[in-house]
Amino acid sequence: MSISIYTKKNCVQCHATKRMLAQRAIPFTLIDTDTHPECVEWLKGQGFLQLPVVITDNLRWSGFRPDMINRLHTHSEAGA
Questions:
Q1: How many Cα atoms within 13 Å fall on the side-chain side of residue 1?
Q2: Could you give the 3-state DSSP secondary structure of residue 29?
Q3: What is the number of alpha carbons within 13 Å of residue 56 lying toward its C-beta?
Q4: pLDDT tens per residue, range 53-75
């Protein structure tokens, strides 16, 4: 499963999301919107208004969502 996290510096919810994924050993790719500002307009066009934005093969959400991270964790354990 591919997981991308759109984030920015000094974002508390972004740090919490990355930390929770790392604690569960779920691999992810970071896209820093501070260094890739062109992503901001694309995310807004997708309907997202806050960071982080997490996009997987079949899930998409914004903000710190422990419930969604737990769904990923359950899914990754089932596939292991």
A1: 21
A2: strand
A3: 16
A4: 999 999 999 999 999 999 887 66
- Token pair of 8, please? 């920015």
- The Cβ of residue 55 has, within 10 Å, a number of other Cβ atoms equal to 19
Q: Are 29 and 4 in contact (CB under 8 A)?
A: yes
Q: Is the pTM of this model over 0.85?
A: yes
State pLDDT tens for residues 17-33.
999 999 999 999 999 99
Q: What's at 41, amino acid-wise?
A: E
Token pair of 25 as six digits: 């050993």
Bond before 52 cis per omega within 30 degrees: yes
What is the separation of C-alpha 58 from the centre of its chain, rounded to a whole number of angstroms? 13
Query: What 3-state class would DSSP assign to 3?
Result: strand
Cα 7 to Cα 60: distance, rounded to the nearest angstrom: 14
